Every structure is written in structure tokens, then in C-alpha cells.
Amino acid sequence: MSRLDQCRLRYSQIQMELSDLEQAYLESLKSQYLSLKSILEVQHSFEINLTSNEITLCLLERLNTYYEMQYAIKNLLRKRYITAGADYFVESVAFFLKLVLERPEIGLEIHSERQVRRKRGSIRPDISIWKNDELIAIVECKTQLGWNRGNWEEHFEARKTQLIAEFSKAKAYLLVMTDLNWGGFKDERHQALLGKEYFCLLKGAWPGTTSFDEIKKNIFWESCIEKLIVSIVDAAQNN
Prior knowledge:
239 residues; 2 domains; 5-stranded mixed sheet; 5 strands
């Protein structure tokens, strides 16, 4: 066998070994979808208690694990920044809303980035909740509001105005992962809407930077995800 053939054989062996190793990573990606699907398939076999904090805890533990892994990958690959978690936050909130609100006894339908009307300029909320063809509510999800700390309220009110023009009875909610980097809903008028229209899950903490036990000490129970779900169910019943 020529030296060139030996090099080709060695290279093909390396390729095969790398491909085998890569399969484990690919399977881990597939397992995320399969795990979500399997939970939804058995959603009727377990009870969800909206007077407990189980959903909030599950959501925040998921976010904490996601960010832990992103910080680990950042260090491993010497990245300057972690992969942004905004889309993962929306996806995770949508999953837990779907888990509860799409049960037959409630009968709602969850969508993400769905245009509320099929026409130019119609809004595409992060999450929208429907009953047949009637829009019940939208949820705009932000990891934090520091990027827009001076204009977030104006932006959200403009969103509400657009929503009401399309569906006069629909509700609009703003869900923020943490008050870190922007100070939170501290104004008196914001406090009055906290847990009703504005929701913030964490105070002074960012997922992935500390243990989940520490995260649990900083949960904003006054505006937990269960209260958001109860408000959406009430809106559906009154629509």
C-alpha cells in the first residue's frame, strides 16, 4: 500500500471515529424534541395544581439548566458571548402554557409568532392564545428590559392598541424573566398591574449564574407563571 493510500485510510478512520462521536451529540439534540413530545402525550395523566408553584419552579429550573450549559459552552469554545436565550425563553413559556391550556377541559390553543390577522402590518406576538378563531390573549416575553428601559412601556402600550384594534376583547400580558439590568416594575402604576398584566419571575438574579437553590430564593411569587395562567383562563371564560 502506498503512503498516499495509507494516509487516505488513516483519514477515513478518523472520519468514521468523529462521525461516531458526533452521533451522540445529534441524539442529544433529537432527545429534546422527544422529551417535550412525551410530556405532552401524557399530560392528561397527571394533575396540574395552579395554586401551587410547580410550573414556575419547572420553568425556572429549565431556564437555569439552559443558561448553565450556555455559559459552559461559552468557556469551552472561548466565545465572547453566550447564545441569546430570548427564543428559548419564549419556547419554554409556550410549552408550559400548552401543557396546561390545551387540556380538553380548558380547550385553548397556543401559538408562537402567529400573525393575528392575515394582512400586512398585523402583529405577530411572541405567544398567542386562541379559542377556535377568537384571540383570547397575547403574551410578550422578554428575558429583561434593560435594552429598552426607557421605552418598554410605550412599546407595550402600542402593542395593546394594535391588539384591541384587531380583537377588542383580547388581553395583553408582558412576561419578563428577571428584573436584573433594568430595575423591575417599581413605579406605583406598574406595581398596581404586577401579577395582573405585568409578570416578572426573578428579582436580582440571572439563571445559570448560580445554583438553582439560590435561584429559588429570588423568585417573584407575586407574579409567578401560575397567576398568568389563571388570568388567561378567566379571560377565556369571559370572552
